Structures are given as structure tokens and as C-alpha cells.
Amino acid sequence: MIVIYGIRHRLDPIKARLSAVIHGCMMDVFGLPEDKRAQRFMPMDAEDFFAPGGRSDAYTVIEINMMAGRTTETQKALIKRLFADIEAELGIAPVDVEIILKEQPPHCWGFRGMTGDEVRDLTYRVDR
Fold first, then answer.
1. What distance, in Å, lies between the first and last C-alpha atoms of the chain?
2. Of 14, 49, 69, 86, which is most buried by a Cβ count within 10 Å?
3. Which superkingdom does the taxonomy of this entry point to (predicted)?
């Protein structure tokens, strides 16, 4: 599950393109299939979204919740790829993008009536 936060007037017009960029990175780096896009956009009013100093109104926060297991190198590759592709495709400078990877053990995930440690038919790996 990916949650994307930003100021409404900047985030709303680019949602579809940003979604495609993020999912493209997830497919290329994490090996997720095309139909494994679980994203939620949270456009906010400017008065409800405070950014650190030196950021513009394009400041965007991307939280990626995932089952634990991927290597540090794979996680870093995803972060670097997201920075590069978001800048190249949407013109948002890396200083205006914050990416947070949140790992939880598989038993903390529930989907399709089971926990993540019980599932045996994933079409992608979480241990690389």
C-alpha cells in the first residue's frame, strides 16, 4: 500500500502520471506485476500540509508500506529510482520529494482472508 500526500492544487493535476511513475518503479525494482497497484492519494489543503524549510508547494510525501524482506540495496535502489523518475517525468526536484519505506513482518499483513505469512501464491518476491 502506497500513500501519497501533497498540496491539493499541485497533486490533483498529476495524480495519474505520478501513479504511473511510482508503479513503474515498483515493477522494475521490486518486480511487482502490473495489476499490483495499491495507491491512495491524499491531496491536502495548503493550510493542513506543512513542509520543511526550503521546499516548494510541489513538496510531496510518498509512504510505501511493504512486507519485510527486501535487501537494503533493493530498498535504496527503489528510493533513488523514484527520485530520478519523478524529476524526469514530472519535473519535481528531489528536494521536494520525501520517500518513507515502512516495513512490517508478513504476519502483520492481512489480505484475501489470510495473513501475509500464510500466502503461498504471490507472483513476486519480497526477499530480494
1. 19
2. 86
3. Bacteria
Judge contact between 60 and 94, C-beta under 8 A.
Answer: no
pTM above 0.70, yes or no: yes
Q: Render pLDDT for 2-43 as a digit per residue (tens, 0 to 9).
A: 999 999 999 999 999 999 999 999 999 999 999 999 999 999
Strand partners, 111: 114
Euclidean distance between CA atoms 59 and 56, whole angstroms: 6
Taking the domains of the chain in order of start, what are their residue ranges?
2-115
How far is Cα 52 from Cα 58, in angstroms, rounded to an integer? 12
Q: Which amino acid is present at 47?
A: E
Burial of 27 (0-12, 13-18, 19+ CB in 10 A): middle
